[in-house]
Amino acid sequence: MKSPFSLEGRTAIVTGGGTGIGKSIAIEFARAGADVAICSRKIEHLEPVAEAVRALGRRTFAMIVDVRVEEQVQAVVERAARDFGRLDVMINNAGASFRSRPEEISVNGWNAVVGINLNGVFLGCKWAQRQMLKQGSGGVMVNVASIAGVYGSTMMPHYGAAKAAVINLTRALGVAWGRHGIRVNCIAPGPVETEGYIDVLHKTDPDADKTYQAVAARVAMGRWGRVEEIAYPCIFLASDASSFMTGETIIVDGGPSPRESEG
Which end of the chain has fewer CB atoms within 10 angstroms, the N or the C? Predict the structure, then answer.
């Protein structure tokens, strides 16, 4: 009997699939049995991930997509349906941000972060839903938010606001599409050690190492998360193991700080 956590025979798209959490999701999905399409804005990031998926015996393709551009999102969904025969899972993971005091964020900076982190999720859900409805057998969407969307972020308020909206959108779409057999859930990671975040930290914070340790100290488990520790809950949400869940957000942050628990 097949495990309810298996993704054998499923097909998926992972946006932002070339680095960090998205790369890990793509590879772990392939290990779980899924064929996985990956997309981002840089093909040089995608090609090694596609090779890793192929090495696991799964079908894949890599495609340049800016998730802010509707025609490009539509194109990757349509290609997945054509190449794989169907689309079962949409992982809206693409994201970006920069650290700044709120009063110093330009309108262009604000719009860029909201465009990638919120508009990109909306477009991914919109076009995946159309394809899943056409297939008539339902499907799953997993949106990657952040604990910044739950608690806010003083140095990335634009990012926190966009991720809060993703959590709200997830709830709304889960309710709207549940009767069609389309489930929409969300993961809100805490501090996860990705090359992108660490690079931003070192470029913008003169005390980056001190900040890194301070962040770890605020986590109950006393450390940053690993990318695969986000990929595994995504497998759960994409699989039949979560078949009675929709509109929900799972926080994966290593637990609240010891200080908060003592209060």
Answer: N
Alpha-carbon span 152 to 192, nearest angstrom: 16
Kindly report the pTM of this predicted structure.
Answer: 0.95
* Catalytic residue check, 212: no
3-class secondary structure, 226? coil
Tokens representing residue 116 in the block: 């990638």
Given the residues 151, 159, 212, 232, select the one marked as catalytic: 159
- pLDDT at position 263 is 46
Under DSSP, the state recorded for 83 is H
- In this structure, is the dihedral angle defined by the CA atoms of residues 121, 124, 127 and 128, taken in order, positive or negative? negative
Delineate the domains of the chain, giving CATH numbers in brackets. Answer: 11-190+225-250 (3.40.50.720)
Beta-bridged to residue 90, according to DSSP, are 13, 141
Q: Quick one: which of 23, 78, 75, 81 has its CA closest to 53?
A: 23
- Summarised one tens digit per residue, pLDDT across range 177-197 is 999 999 999 999 999 998 877
Residues 6+ apart with CB under 8 A from 251: 147, 150, 188, 190
